[in-house]
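Onboarding guide, step 5: your first structure request.
Type a short instruction followed by the sequence, for example:

Predict the 3D structure of this protein.
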Amino acid sequence: MRYIRYAFWAGVGIVLIVVALANRGEVTLNLLPATLADLLGLGYSVTLPLFLVILGGVVAGLLIGFVWEWLREHRFRAEKARAERELRQTQREIRRLKGKQAEGKDEVLALLDENG
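The system replies with structure tokens like these:
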């Protein structure tokens, strides 16, 4: 199984290298369209190789997806935490009730009742 994982990551690495080599041309990324940049005075731009733009877009998409999924699953995590709190409270109450039931009994008999 380990070799399959290594082969998979080697394949991913080869594909990324091939994409990088095929897209080495430089592109200019602008923060805003030219007319809006002139109007607001925010004419920031950067020149990068195209493969960095492609891979950066993939990474940004993955991060946005992870954050979106984490936010979407919040209610499930909160529900699980609430259920665990209720379970602990119920277990404490059971122990307390068993302790009251065992009051006045012989210690050995109380232990036997508690365990089974």
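Each response can be followed by summary notes, for example: The CA atoms of residues 37 and 43 lie 5 Å apart.
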